[in-house]
User: Fold these one by one.
Assistant:
Number 1:
Amino acid sequence: MHSRRALLYMPGDNWKMITKAVTLGVDSICMDMEDGTAVNKKAEARTTIAKALRELDFGASEKLARINSIGSGWEQDDIEAVLPYRPDGIVIPKVESYDHVEWAGKIIEDTELKHGWQVNSIRILIGVETAKGILNLKEIASHPRLDAIIFGGEDFAASIGATRTKDAIELMYARQAVLVACAANDLQAIDIVTIDYKDLESLRVEAEQGAGLGFSGKQAIHPNQVPVVQEAFTPSDEAVAYAKKIVETFEASQKEGRGAYSLDGKMIDMPLLKNAQKVLSRAKAAGK
Ligand code: COA
Ligand code: MG
């Protein structure tokens, strides 16, 4: 799976921002037709995204296009406008049921077959960011075409009538519901946007909190946020060294017939090994 520590959005009609995004070395670039794009710019966003997919070199960055939500009336034209130019993935916002994913999966598969592209090569990422979406996570997250669930904090707060606060306690239940659904289905979980994009210190705190909770990445809306987010979701040298030490000593301890043992004054057993292996696979995915 593509590493998605930072997923940067920009309005799909904004050619300048798209051309900037491809220079940033960001893991994922998400050209938006939904809420980042004004109602009178939806058509322009479609053609601009198609042009970007056709003409720009995205380097190692993943090319994503976010369509409007299912039921908006725009979703069909959105997906049809961009799919022929072979994005790496489609992002569907405000998903509330398994059928929403199925709808996109069917269209994508038809396109893959029509062009002779490998089936499942275009990935689906979904936003789950409404009360209904959180309630139906169990079914939604089981869809076989999914790669990742993106949790939209602002949309969710609006959906339940919560006031957003800096420490985001009003979102904790839903964030953890998304995390659990992702872990159970081997999906990436992508955390909330920090909309106060000038405050990079708060961003760092929130990104580290998200990484600590178990998210694999975070949404970003401004170029300055990208390095801060990517760093927070890359295990530190120290964490990698400690994880390696656990993996090595665990094996020796098992051979000696001990399931639990002591390392640097701490108890180590199976769950700590599993966590250490996760740290190492994240470091590897981040190119470390
Ligand atoms: N992606 C790529 N480039 C971006 C960018 C983004 N999301 N946001 C800003 N830039 C570029 C600007 O074009 C500008 O480029 P330049 O230096 O070549 O002129 C540079 O980064 C600095 O931008 P800045 O002036 O600090 O920001 P702004 O005031 O122009 O825009 C926002 C601020 C928040 C309106 C803008 O960052 C934005 O639109 N972000 C994305 C919002 C979005 O997509 N929301 C929907 C999903 S949640
Ligand atoms: Mg949203």
Note: Residues 35, 93, 129, 152, 155 surround magnesium ion (ligand 2) (CB under 6 Å).
Number 2:
Amino acid sequence: MAKKLFIKTYGCQMNVYDSARMADVLAPLGYGPTDDPAKADMVILNTCHIREKAAEKVFSELGRLKIDRDQRQAEGNDMIIAVAGCVAQAEGAEILRRAPQVDIVLGPQTYHRLPEMVARATRASAARRAAKAAGVSRKQLPPRPGVLDTDFPVESKFDHLPEATVPQGVTAFLAIQEGCDKFCTFCVVPYTRGAEFSRPVVQIAAEARRLVDQGAREITLLGQNVNAYHGAAPRGDAEWGLGDLIRYLAETVDGLARIRYTTSHPRDMEDDLIAAHAEVPQLMPFLHLPVQSGSDRILEAMNRQHKVERFREIVAKLRAARPDLALSSDFIVGFPGESEADFLATMALVEEIGFAQSFSFKYSMRPGTPAAALENQVPEAVKDERLQRLQALLNRQLADFNRQMVGTILPVLFEKRGRYAGQLVGKSPYLQPVHAMAPDAMIGRIAMVRIDGLSHFSLAGTVTDETAAAVSVPAAGVFSREARA
Ligand code: SAH
Ligand code: SF4
Ligand code: F3S
């Protein structure tokens, strides 16, 4: 009988990718997906540790799962419960101590070993069921062993993962780099994901071809520090940066219409990568480039290793290379020691640059990070108030950006059916959802769509040309800063 697997994913795109790969690892063991945890033979919580309350959310979810499992056991079934991801890495032992219902705790770098872990948990489950059937009382049942694997193994999980079996669809994620050596003083990622590591170009290209064979037309290259990529080149012992990798994928992977990458650090935004934005039409003119703050003093305290001026220079170069480029970013308000003047510098930078979309957060103290030990923490009420002001500005920029699309013609990659009969939903080059009437046969294809109107966060339009080139053509200058001012 086929076994059912339920995975709940928290956090960043890398976790989304990891969840897909865990499903791949478990498919040969007979596990297929379900979207109902109560029906699952195995549940994986793929967790995120980036901000507070993440761990608490995991524990309350585990409480709910225990109820589902008790119910399943009463019906003669069982459920393996696994906690994966960054909370598992940071607090693995604590999870097993506080939540004895958990069978498996595994970190982000060990999921290729899931089959062994599942085998151990399954043996333990079988032993318990046999004992129960033999009349052993609940208290005397053999314990669940609690498998813990939060190693940073020397071998790369990527060398041990099976080929992807669960198709990701028209748009797909591909991890090319993992981990982080930057140690921003607020951030847990270097501790939960480990040191920077880049996959070889050949391995990435093979995975990209498989994804395209399974129907992907757009691939987002992922890494915690994706533009620090430095992987082994296809021939010889050279290393390639991200710019060369993108050129290579664009040239050699037939049918790959769109390439994106995330998340970048301004420090690693080198000229060669910026040049790729001018050269490679498949590379979408939309870049997520977190700056965190507009104050040099705060950037320094955050250990971001660059000044505000450097960010301005990069943006200018990017816009020169690709005039239709739009930017998104991440911001933290209320970092320890942030004064009103520092915060106003962030607001001024946002006004100056103009972002199409952004994510903004209140600084959250993370155990074990240097910033958590700083004394001049900003009061919660001040953080709240600054976040509101920043978000009002960012939301206005988002609305302006979307509004200036009306009347333009954009290449749209259709992904799936919309809510209404005959309607499809796709994405613009700027990741805006676009609704238009189009036949199902257009799914997975790019059409030119005239944008007629806006609704909330999406655009509505009319297909003007179904045979648009697979590659989007820059509409020179239309979306540049000048046009928006
Ligand atoms: N590698 C990326 C970001 C990874 S985390 C980079 O270097 O930019 C995603 C975002 O979460 C960060 O950009 C930051 O804005 C936010 N973040 C990380 N740690 C945080 C913390 N302790 N408190 C608040 N926000 C945080
Ligand atoms: Fe975290 Fe900084 Fe690394 Fe990004 S660059 S993952 S914010 S330590
Ligand atoms: Fe969260 Fe880990 Fe990603 S902490 S943001 S899931 S790298």
Note: The chain has 13 helices and 21 strands.
